[in-house]
Structure formats: structure tokens, C-alpha cells
């Protein structure tokens, strides 16, 4: 019951009618075992949280981003700590056509795309405590145009039998491209919008400098996504990255300078 008292800070942002079933559902989440379902929550929550009440609660539109931030600022935030902004995508396996946002997403645990739902989470990571606190969560719902682009890209990767093997090196006639001007993918645009909304919400209460992502985002486009948000990217180079050190040798005397 002491944990439920922590919800008092949320009263200015939600009504008492909504906060009452929220406390009962939270208590059921803390004690129940097995897979989390609405029917299981109704059984474990006891009196005052029937199955219809649980359905009504999850169909209510709540300012979850504001609730996460208010709870973090009231009970978790430490002014002397250094925080990093972390991002991670989580895939939950699910079957059934009526499920909202159902698609095939790559799951690292299975090592292949699986049918399910994907959620993108942003967390504030305390360097001193070495703990992560989720602060913003959004479901990834792909548009029809994005699905068509993925299918076209997958078909383009398959080698055609009649296609001759391309010679190694740079193709003849290719020109240098402006690497500063990149076209962000829908995934990166979705992440950038979430970061902008989060930075606007915290309103300089926590100075954020670094953005931590896994090796999937260790590329140039993700770096260009972090720069407009005034963040530095911490990630791991992908296995297909080509890393070259700057040339510091003497000039040959003729021709262009080596880079």
C-alpha cells in the first residue's frame, strides 16, 4: 500500500475516477504471475476492478508522457546525478488479425522477424545508480507506404540470376554526395519527433548531452538525427562499417592530397 501512496503526485493531471482503478490495476501488476492480460488483471485486482472496469481504463486516453515525467520528477530525480537519454525498441509477439499495429518486426531474441507489436521506449539512465527509468513509450505503427517500401527493398536485395556480378570498387561515373543532407527514414523521423517532444516536456530541468542506442543505429543517418536535437550519439559501429583513419603521411608532390 505504500507504493500506491506515490500516485498522489498524479492527481493534478488525472481525475480521481481514473486514478482509483489505476491504483488497483497497479497493485495487481505487482502481485500477479504469468502473462499479463486484462482478464488476469481483473482477477487479481479484486473488488472494484471488474473486467469491464479494466477495459474502460485501458480505453481511456491518458497523458502518459506527462504522468511518467511527473512521477520521475517527484520520486526519482536527483539533481546531483548525470542522466543519459537511452532508446530501445521492444517486440512483443502476438497473433490475431484484429490486434492494432500487428506486423512483422525483427526480434533479437529470435534472430528473425516475428509477427507481433513493436514499442519504442525512451529512458533516462542514471550514471550514478546505473538504472534506467522509462520516460516515454510509443507503439510503432507502420503506414501502408512504409510497408510497401520495405517489401520493395527486400525484393531488391534478392540477387537476380541474370545479373552479372558487379566489379569491386566504386562504379564508374559516380559522384560525391553531400553527406550532411540525408533523408531520414520513417523510423528515424518517428524517433526524432519523440525526442523533440521529450525535450520540450522536461523544459531544461535535466541537461541531456548524450543519446545512447544499440548497434542497429550505428550509422550516419542516426548521427544526423541526433544533431538537430543538440545531442551526441553513443552507439556501436555496425559490422559492415568501413572505418578509415585520417592520412597523416607526407605529400607525394603531385596529385590530390590524400585524406
Tell me about this structure.
- The chain is globular and about 85 Å long.
- The chain contains seven helices and six strands, in the order H-H-H-H-E-E-E-E-H-H-E-H-E.
- Helix 1 packs across helix 2.
- With 259 residues, it is α/β, with parallel strands linked by helices.
- Strands 1, 2, 3, 4, 5 and 6 form a six-stranded mixed β-sheet that branches.
- It has two domains: 1-61, no CATH class; 63-154 and 182-238, no CATH class.
The domain tally reads 2
The portion of residues forming beta strands comes to 15-25%
Q: Write down how many β-strands occur, each being a DSSP E stretch of 2 or more residues.
A: 6
C-alpha Rg (nearest Å) = 24 Å
Oligomer: single chain
Q: Mind describing the biggest β-sheet?
A: 6 strands, mixed
Poorly predicted runs of 5 or more residues: none
Helix-strand topology string: HHHHEEEEHHEHE
The average pLDDT is 86
**Approximate shape:** globular
Fraction of helical residues: 25-40%
Put simply, the count of helices is: 7
Distance between the termini: 65 Å
Q: Helix/strand-derived class?
A: alpha/beta
Give the secondary structure arrangement, pairings included:
Blueprint: H1 16-31, H2 38-45, H3 51-58, H4 64-75, E1 83-93, E2 103-107, E3 112-126, E4 131-140, H5 144-157, H6 186-202, E5 210-212, H7 220-226, E6 232-234
Parallel strand pairs: 1-5, 5-6
Antiparallel strand pairs: 1-3, 2-3, 3-4
Helix pairs in contact: 1-2, 2-3, 6-7
